[in-house]
Amino acid sequence: MPLRNQKNSFRYIAFEGIDGSGKSTQAKLFADYLENKGFCVFLTKEPGGSTDKIRDLLLNYRWSKRAELFLFLADRAENAREIKNKLDKGCIVVSDRCMYSTIAYQGFGEGLDIDFLEELNLFSTDGLKPDIVFCFDVDLETMNERVGKRDVIESKPRDFFYRVREGYRELAKRNDRFFLIDGKKKKEEVFGEVLRIWESL
Ligand code: TYD
Questions:
Q1: Which residue CA neighbors atom 6 of ligand 1 most closely?
Q2: pLDDT, tens only, 7-18
């Protein structure tokens, strides 16, 4: 169904945050909510929205930070094509992570140049970027409690995640429609906040 009844015209909505912030849960709740309203919804994720192969390489092997960056970008380039396709068909795209993860993790976390990463991100998506970002903020203790068995990236040191978290907070200050939400509350309360923002747009 096209975008009848929707007040705003935002169609590409991304969910962000450090590991254990609850973004995947919230992305799923949001996608279900829109589907129940009758919208065509495409729920996707990065890495791994269009192919599990690059995700597997990223999460199970150790890479230099530059090689890791290009794997994320390659994954994003593939995913962006599919996202465009769905947007052209009138669907709403709900994405569990997007280009801002690269800014937070590879930029703020790994120390790669952020302006350059922004250019690379837009190059990889051919200019496509999310209309709205909901970003869930949790402290590192909460992250540690919530994350079970750790993949290669989740095994990075605490100070890496400290920088990533601060990076997200900075991104919320720098970008319009990048909403920072307290992710420590119960999932229903957090989702209530997502909907309150969504309805207010
Ligand atoms: P995610 O799928 O959120 O992890 P999980 O399903 O295990 O909760 O993301 C995998 C990891 O990749 C996560 O630690 C964040 C990291 N990541 C980056 O470092 N850069 C990126 O550009 C993206 C998209 C993810």
A1: 24
A2: 678 999 999 999
